[in-house]
Design brief:
12 helices, elongated, Endonuclease III, domain 1, mainly alpha, Endonuclease Iii, domain 2
């Protein structure tokens, strides 16, 4: 259901205040100890839950937590270790290619710019935003399926794709709140504003939400 309008500026601010009060401790649910671990976990998280990724990496990072250590593995060996994350052949190939580039071009360090991160195989805009925001504290909004769904439902954005949604969110939300808002929207999408059966009956945003007003007439 695509809406033709968005909330007004005042309503957007009100929605963000409610989300902040609802999820004051919201942060990445991926478990990592370094920018490199976050990068690998985010690549693994494509089409996979954070919970599953954390289960896999809790063992994986005990032996492999640097680009050099990963490069001791073949694609098949790494694939076997990450198989339960799904698309393991593609992810294995991308991770090892990324590790090779990190060693050869970036002195084994994960770059802190979106442009450089997007040079790495398996790293798109969303993954790059997650890394610069969480690992380096830069303002960014990563639009995953939860952020896309929730922001377009509420009326913080009105776009058919993730790129348009990201642009609108960057325009509608104060820059200093980008990273926090990203986490609030993810938490809301996972806990209340679910894809198939949103729990509107317990949602504190119903007085503002365009989706709720639409479905309740």
């Amino acid at each position: 259901m695509v809406k033709k309008k968005m909330l007004k500026k005042k309503e957007i601010k009100e929605a963000l205040v409610i989300l902040e009060e609802l999820y004051p401790e919201a942060e990445s649910e991926l478990v990592y100890k370094s920018p490199f671990e976050l990068l690998i976990s985010t690549i693994l998280a494509a089409q996979c839950t954070d919970k599953r990724v954390n289960k896999v990496t809790s063992e994986l990072y005990k032996k492999y937590n640097t680009p050099e250590s990963f490069l001791k593995l073949t694609e098949e060996e790494l694939g076997a270790l990450i198989k339960s994350c799904g698309f393991y052949k593609v992810k294995s190939k991308n991770i090892l290619s990324t590790c090779r580039i990190l060693v050869e071009k970036f002195d084994s360090k994960v770059p802190d710019t979106i442009e450089e991160l997007m040079e790495l195989p398996g790293v798109g805009k969303k993954t790059a935003n997650v890394v610069v925001s969480n690992a380096y504290g830069k303002d960014a909004i990563a639009v995953d399926t939860h952020v896309f769904r929730v922001s377009n439902r509420i009326g913080l954005a009105s776009s058919k794709d993730v790129f348009g949604t990201e642009e609108q969110l960057m325009k509608n939300i104060e820059k200093s709140l980008w990273s926090q808002a990203h986490h609030w929207l993810i938490f809301h999408g996972r806990r209340i504003c679910k894809a198939r059966k949103p729990k509107c009956e317990v949602c504190p945003l119903t007085t503002i939400c365009l989706y709720y007003k639409e479905v309740t007439g």
